[in-house]
């Protein structure tokens, strides 16, 4: 009895769930449909429904008979009705004035009455078409279908468009004032009550996978021939074992990523067996966010987790043929059996589970392009935002659902327009010697939502058909699959055919119609064969697969702004991100979109600023700056209520959008402080995996301030130019974007592990978290210099540096001398380091083998009358490790008899000039100072001029010769040309004028000039307020 009671209750609940819910509507997820067992013959009707979607195409309603039908479809953002009551098809389209794929609610009404079919959109835009009134009725023999056709099989479904993805509500189908749908039994497959927020999800938003059936599918993960396939996403889970990503391929090819015992495992088959790659460096089931980057190159398979990489080589001779859909989070239920029958799932289950992922994914990128739920083809049991982030899942529940619809196979291929089918032999006739394939393919250009006829130029024969005796009607094309983002319209006498000829193309019978999806290109996949009695090489007659690329030319849509309430930091900075200020415009590149602040905010209240120009108030910013995390709102006091913004793409300007501001008192909590470990002499990035704090409000700008000098290294931050500079202050955003690093600078002979304690405070607005410590452990370097002996050299010598002066070693190993590399960090100043007669500069390399062979030497360049010292600094790189920074000293002994050269760097202000005298350049010997200088190579960014006596105009022309007398009397001037250069130089030779010939070159050299940049912007004060401090107290001085 108890079992019977459970069955009755379950049946009653199922019946309740199957009843229509017109007020709340339903969500359809790309493979959903409802079938209603309503069987009627109607002569008049009124159909009404409401939709909300971003997709331009999809089936809305079908009243199905054996031969009669009524379709209501979304095509290219407009509604089209198709009806056949037995005397031929009647079509009616909605007004072109309104597009229905803008994620707004639209009411659609379709009425048949008094011999007229009338359509109305939002009760404003009527269109109509006459219908022959000969007493015929619409015979509905097979029921009503909403959102898709399921397992229905009728002849008129051959050109059916994809299932609907979006929200549908208030569906009524009335005849003689009676709603046919109200009492009919209704059964739904994979729909949900109410309108899901996933249809409005934007790029980067997290997606929650909450049931064992959850999944998202995207279009084929194709790869260009010259670029790797790349897949990137953020993930968060507590599950030890699950399937993350799966993609089927042709024959045995497939790709899969899963979690096995908390670590990431990848599998790939290129046709020569399964390759398995484990990344066991980062554990993933810790309920923390992790970034995963997967790359498949022709010769490498790599998985990167939080910058920790694992890779394995692939056979470059194999091609990777992926077809069908890219599944993330799991696999569609009805497709599992298909993939199990074809083999990949059984092979995957030898290494990992195929159970769905439970957790969150975010910031999905496929081949560097963002993918959101708006791009998804089909989804099931996924929700916007991550679980625990203020999302209500109460509307999602399990509903018994059944389907017998066949699996949909969407097969896309990589495109190679230069593919060759024919190879000439000695037996090939002369007229076919240079023919490589039957057709040359040229991409089809179609405007967004438009249509285009195919012509012979798109599929052009590579030889003269007339000369070969081949007719255009003998080249037959078979359409293997409908394009995913459009339709191929074949206007030939035979109905429901997927075949046509080159003659049909030449006669303008074949047309491509785009569905309006502007995000993706499309392709038409064809099989081509030649049926002729004339002679053709077999490689031209045999059936071949051709792919015609379809490139979509976007139309310009008006950009839109959106967003919710913005929580800003009281008396502090708040980062504005795309999830806060939402920009919608898929036509225009982000770089071309400009946001303008139209509301007036008092400077005492707050302002917008760009992080590239801190302290400067801005009234406009670009979409790119917003995406790059450069835009902040700075609150200075008071209670701002709202801001008003507009956005422009350079052609169209949006309506004003007002976003509410809510001032939030700041608070800080350190959530991660894991410290850092690195080898002596190396450097390592500091990210939010090492140090992170939680701010309230969430996007408040956290500022870290170092309060004590570091002992064994320094912190460096990457600047906008890509160079690193030492800092004592940084932001949480620097940690999030990997712009901060610790550099070990201690070069002492370290034997034990050292600890550098970084003391810091964290500031948010006027709130401070005092006296925090970040621990850096410095491990003794495995690469060290075991022999370093100072070089002693006469000022007129060149001396070899060998292993007796310089030698490095790797602890516990005996590496090949060629693999031990010395990297020159700072070259010598008074001389030159020479390798095989070439002067080495900063960044150049010599090896231990060069020292062993005696090909490295030091040559004195600057001679002085007294002994002097020089040095160069270097690091050693061996066995994938760096040594600390070492300094090699050189002692230069002066010669009492020879001439002594002074050659010092001259510092000149940008665009200025400076006297060049004996303090910078001078040559003398015990016997003479009568020397002449000849310029062998002029400066590049300035010139040398000779000053005139007082009262005489100065000649500005460049000189080529000067003397010691010019230098001694301050007559020589270097003048900079004002360019943005940082240094300059000229080459010179010196001759002794006291000898008889005067042509004996004594010495040659290079004189260097350092250009000091000039600040062309006058500084101005943007904050001018009294700074109040309690007596004997302290207060943070901020901007």
UniProtKB/TrEMBL annotation:
Organism: Takifugu bimaculatus
Pfam family, one: Cadherin_3
Per-repeat ranges for CSPG: 435-529, 557-650, 667-763, 897-991
Name of the protein in question: Laminin G domain-containing protein
Statement: the UniProt record of this protein carries the keyword Signal: yes
GO-annotated biological processes: anatomical structure morphogenesis
SMART domains per the UniProt record, alphabetical: LamG (SM00282)
Superkingdom to which the source organism belongs: Eukaryota
Laminin G domain location: 26-195, 205-386
Protein keywords: Glycoprotein, Repeat, Signal
Signal peptide extent: 1-25
Sections of the chain in a coiled coil: none
UniProt keyword annotation of Cell membrane present: no
InterPro entries in the record: ConA-like_dom_sf, CSPG_rpt, FRAS1_ECM, Laminin_G
């Amino acid at each position: 009895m108890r079992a019977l009671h459970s069955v009755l209750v379950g049946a009653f609940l199922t019946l309740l769930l199957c009843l229509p819910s017109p007020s709340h509507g339903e969500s359809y997820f790309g493979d959903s449909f409802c079938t209603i067992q309503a069987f009627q013959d109607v002569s008049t009707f009124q159909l009404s429904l409401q939709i909300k979607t971003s997709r331009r195409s999809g089936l809305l309603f079908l009243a199905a008979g054996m031969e009669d039908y009524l379709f209501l479809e979304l095509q290219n953002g407009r509604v089209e009705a198709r009806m056949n009551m037995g005397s031929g098809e009647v079509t009616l389209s909605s007004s072109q004035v309104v597009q229905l794929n803008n994620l707004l609610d639209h009411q659609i009404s379709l009425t048949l009455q008094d011999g007229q079919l009338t359509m109305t959109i939002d009760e404003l835009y009527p269109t109509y078409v006459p219908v022959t009134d000969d007493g015929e009725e619409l015979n509905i023999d097979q029921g009503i279908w909403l959102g898709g056709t399921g397992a229905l099989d009728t002849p008129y479904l051959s050109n059916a468009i994809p299932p609907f993805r979006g929200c549908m509500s208030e569906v009524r189908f009335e005849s003689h004032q009676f709603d046919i749908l109200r009492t009919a039994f209704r059964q739904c497959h994979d729909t949900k009550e109410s309108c899901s927020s996933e249809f409005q999800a934007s790029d980067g938003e997290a997606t929650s996978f909450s049931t064992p059936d959850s999944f998202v599918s995207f279009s084929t993960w194709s790869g260009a021939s010259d670029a790797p396939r790349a897949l990137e996403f953020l993930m968060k889970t507590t599950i030890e074992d699950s399937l993350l990503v799966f993609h089927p391929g042709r024959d045995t090819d497939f790709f899969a990523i899963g979690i096995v015992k908390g670590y990431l495992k990848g599998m790939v088959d290129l046709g020569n067996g399964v390759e398995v790659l484990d990344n066991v460096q980062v554990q993933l089931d810790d309920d923390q966010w992790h970034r995963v980057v997967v790359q498949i190159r022709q010769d490498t398979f790599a998985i990167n987790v939080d910058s920790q990489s694992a890779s394995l080589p692939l056979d470059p001779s194999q091609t990777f043929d992926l077809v069908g859909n890219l599944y993330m989070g799991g696999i569609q239920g009805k497709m599992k059996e298909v993939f199990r029958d074809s083999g990949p799932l059984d092979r995957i289950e030898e290494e990992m589970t195929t159970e769905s992922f439970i957790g969150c994914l975010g910031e999905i990128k496929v081949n560097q392009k963002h993918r959101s739920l708006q791009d998804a083809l089909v989804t099931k049991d996924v929700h916007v935002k991550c679980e625990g982030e203020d999302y209500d899942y109460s509307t999602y529940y399990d509903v018994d659902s059944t389907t017998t619809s066949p699996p949909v196979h969407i097969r896309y291929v990589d495109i190679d327009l230069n593919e060759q089918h024919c190879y000439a032999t000695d037996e090939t006739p002369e007229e076919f010697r240079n023919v490589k394939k039957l057709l040359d393919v040229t991409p089809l250009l179609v405007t967004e939502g438009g249509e285009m006829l195919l012509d012979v130029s798109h599929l052009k024969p590579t030889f003269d058909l007339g000369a070969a005796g081949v007719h255009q009607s003998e080249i037959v094309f078979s359409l293997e699959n409908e394009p995913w983002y459009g339709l191929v319209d074949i206007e030939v006498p035979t109905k429901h055919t997927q075949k046509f000829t080159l003659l049909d193309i030449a006669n303008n019978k074949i047309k491509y119609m785009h569905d309006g999806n502007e995000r993706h290109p499309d392709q038409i996949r064809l099989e081509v064969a030649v049926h002729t009695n004339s002679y053709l090489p077999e490689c031209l007659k045999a059936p071949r697969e051709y792919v015609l690329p379809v490139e979509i030319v976007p139309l310009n849509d008006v950009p839109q702004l959106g967003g919710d309430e913005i929580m800003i930091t009281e008396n502090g900075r708040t980062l504005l991100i795309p999830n806060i200020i939402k920009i919608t415009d898929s036509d225009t590149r982000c770089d071309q979109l400009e946001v303008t602040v139209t509301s007036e905010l008092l400077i005492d209240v707050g302002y917008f600023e760009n992080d590239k120009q801190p302290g400067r108030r801005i009234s406009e910013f670009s979409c790119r700056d917003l995406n790059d995390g450069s835009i902040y709102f700075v609150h200075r006091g008071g209670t701002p209520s709202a801001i008003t913004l507009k956005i422009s793409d350079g052609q169209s300007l949006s309506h004003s959008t007002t976003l509410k501001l809510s001032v939030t008192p700041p608070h800080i909590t350190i959530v991660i402080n894991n410290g850092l470990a690195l080898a002596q002499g190396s450097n390592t990035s500091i990210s939010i995996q090492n140090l992170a704090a939680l701010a309230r409000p969430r996007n408040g700008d956290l500022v870290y301030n170092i309060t004590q000098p570091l002992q064994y290294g320094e912190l460096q931050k990457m600047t906008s130019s890509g160079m690193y500079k030492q800092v004592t202050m940084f932001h949480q955003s620097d940690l999030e974007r990997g712009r901060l690093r610790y550099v070990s600078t201690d070069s002492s002979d370290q034997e034990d592990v050292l600890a550098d304690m970084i003391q810091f405070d964290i500031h948010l607005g006027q709130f401070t978290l005092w006296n925090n410590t970040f621990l850096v452990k410095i491990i003794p370097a495995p690469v060290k210099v075991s022999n370093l002996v100072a070089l002693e050299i006469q000022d007129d010598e060149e001396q070899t540096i060998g292993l007796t002066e310089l030698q490095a070693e790797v602890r516990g190993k005996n590496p090949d001398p060629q693999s031990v590399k010395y990297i020159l960090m700072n070259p010598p100043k008074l001389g030159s380091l020479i390798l095989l007669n070439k002067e080495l500069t900063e960044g150049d390399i010599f090896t231990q083998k060069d020292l062993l062979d005696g090909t490295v030497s030091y040559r004195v360049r600057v001679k002085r009358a007294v002994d002097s010292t020089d040095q160069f600094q270097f690091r050693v790189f061996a066995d994938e490790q760096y040594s600390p920074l070492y300094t090699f000293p050189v002692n230069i002994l002066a010669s009492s008899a020879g001439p002594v050269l002074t050659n010092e760097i001259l510092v000149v202000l940008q665009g200025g000039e400076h006297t060049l005298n004996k303090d910078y350049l001078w040559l003398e010997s015990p016997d003479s100072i009568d020397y002449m200088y000849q310029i062998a190579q002029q400066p590049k960014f300035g010139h040398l001029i000779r000053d005139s006596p007082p009262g005489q105009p100065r000649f500005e022309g460049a000189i080529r010769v000067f003397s010691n007398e010019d230098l001694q009397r301050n007559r020589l001037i270097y003048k900079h040309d004002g360019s943005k250069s940082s240094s300059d130089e000229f080459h010179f030779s010196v001759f002794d004028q006291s000898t008889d010939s005067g042509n004996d070159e004594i010495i040659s050299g290079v004189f260097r000039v350092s250009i000091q940049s000039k600040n062309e912007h006058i500084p101005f004060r943007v904050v001018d307020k009294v700074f109040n401090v309690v007596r004997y107290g302290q207060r943070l001085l901020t901007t």
